């Protein structure tokens, strides 16, 4: 179903249509200035799409426009889906959040923690705390990304072949490689953006006895009607895929990276491997706003989802206080981290209009979403520009959405 077929009157949803035009005009300048190839925004309230717009091209060279059914690489917007999948298994008693990951992935026993030295001669000591499943959900495991380029352990990941991708091996072997590298810190003591959710994907495979793609398809995508979300684009849908662009030194989207995911890789990335559409992801965020259920389909208990939506960082810290280095374009003051997404606790501290209890995350190609339970609101923005911090899209989107909400 096309999202435009179910679009509702924005006035009934509490929006001023003239003020919504400010949003479209503002981001149209991003395309006119060459900062973005094209974009799509979907705003829903009280279960109905109140605003759907797009501008520019899904492929600049062919002038193919952004359309309702354009497919986007969502990268780290995969992480909340993987986290929901894990918590579905938690609700079935497959594991406890405090279980060591080694009970399901034995290579995670006997972890070591980095203590000093360059990557080529890293010094380590035995970890005193095992990596637990809740550490994976909260990015407090001490795992990292090779592309972070902030720490000697990041370099160790790159030396092992883990930069922006993975070697040609299955997820089990990939996770064994991650386990063989030292942790940045004692599990549970700090926060670092890394491969934790990829390891969580392997936990899901072992606990369920299913491949991650099969679990997603049968337990989440088909029940929610997410027909275009997958680890690869079907051959008949390749023309719908938005091309990927790198920003040049001036922040312009001028360097195409057109390698469509024709087939799922051997290592299915629960941290960043999915493609999706605005309508499909709207179905997922609708489930989050529905307390774990949508249109009679329940994936999670509302109690479980409320628990996921609390700040689980050690000592109740906020991301700006505990995170290692810079990992996103937005200010993270006033934000905690729950089980799979950021959680706004103090909007004033962030200097961006938002609401306590808002859940959010984004992707490497400048995509973003948030859900605001207090306003019964969800917002999604899709484009295809790497890196995500090139322009202040996420903070400006907040400004422009909330100024148009007038009821």
TrEMBL record:
The Beta-lactamase-related domain, residue ranges: 23-387
One Pfam assignment: Beta-lactamase
Transmembrane intervals: none
Matches recorded under PANTHER family: BETA-LACTAMASE FAMILY PROTEIN (AFU_ORTHOLOGUE AFUA_5G07500), BETA-LACTAMASE-RELATED
Protein's recorded name: CubicO group peptidase (Beta-lactamase class C family)
């Amino acid at each position: 179903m096309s999202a435009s077929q179910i679009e509702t009157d924005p006035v009934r949803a509490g929006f001023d249509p003239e003020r919504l035009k400010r949003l479209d005009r503002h981001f149209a300048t991003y395309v006119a200035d060459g900062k973005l190839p094209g974009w799509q925004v979907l705003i829903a309230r009280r279960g109905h799409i109140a605003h759907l717009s797009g501008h520019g091209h899904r492929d600049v060279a062919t002038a193919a426009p952004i359309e309702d059914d354009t497919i986007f690489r969502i990268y780290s917007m995969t992480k909340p889906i993987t986290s929901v999948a894990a918590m579905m298994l938690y609700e079935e008693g497959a594991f406890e959040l405090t279980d060591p990951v080694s009970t399901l992935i034995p290579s995670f026993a006997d972890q070591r923690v980095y203590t000093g030295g360059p990557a080529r001669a890293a010094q380590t000591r035995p970890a005193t705390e095992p990596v637990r499943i809740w550490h994976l959900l909260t990015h407090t495991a001490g795992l990292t990304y090779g592309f972070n380029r902030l720490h000697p352990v990041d370099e160790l990941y790159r030396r092992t072949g883990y930069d922006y991708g993975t070697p040609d091996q299955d997820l089990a072997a990939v996770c064994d490689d991650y386990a063989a590298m030292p942790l940045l810190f004692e599990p549970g003591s700090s926060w670092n953006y890394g491969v934790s959710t990829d390891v969580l994907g392997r936990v899901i495979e072992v606990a369920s006895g299913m491949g991650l793609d099969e679990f997603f398809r049968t337990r989440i995508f088909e029940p929610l009607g997410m027909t275009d979300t997958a680890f690869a684009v079907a051959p008949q849908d390749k023309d719908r895929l938005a091309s990927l662009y790198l920003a040049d030194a001036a922040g312009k989207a001028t360097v195409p990276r057109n390698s469509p995911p024709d087939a799922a890789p051997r290592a299915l990335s629960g941290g960043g491997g999915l493609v999706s559409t605005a309508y499909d992801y709207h179905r997922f965020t609708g489930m989050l706003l529905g307390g774990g259920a949508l249109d009679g389909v329940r994936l999670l208990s509302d109690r479980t989802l409320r628990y996921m939506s609390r700040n689980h960082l050690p000592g109740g810290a906020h991301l700006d206080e505990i995170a290692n280095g810079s990992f996103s374009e937005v200010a993270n003051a006033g934000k905690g981290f729950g089980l799979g997404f950021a959680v706004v606790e103090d909007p004033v501290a962030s200097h961006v209009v938002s609401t306590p209890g808002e859940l959010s995350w984004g992707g490497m190609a400048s995509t973003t979403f948030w859900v605001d339970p207090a306003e019964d609101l969800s917002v999604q923005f899709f484009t295809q520009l790497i890196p995500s911090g090139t322009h202040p899209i996420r903070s400006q989107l907040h400004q422009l959405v909330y100024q148009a909400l007038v009821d």
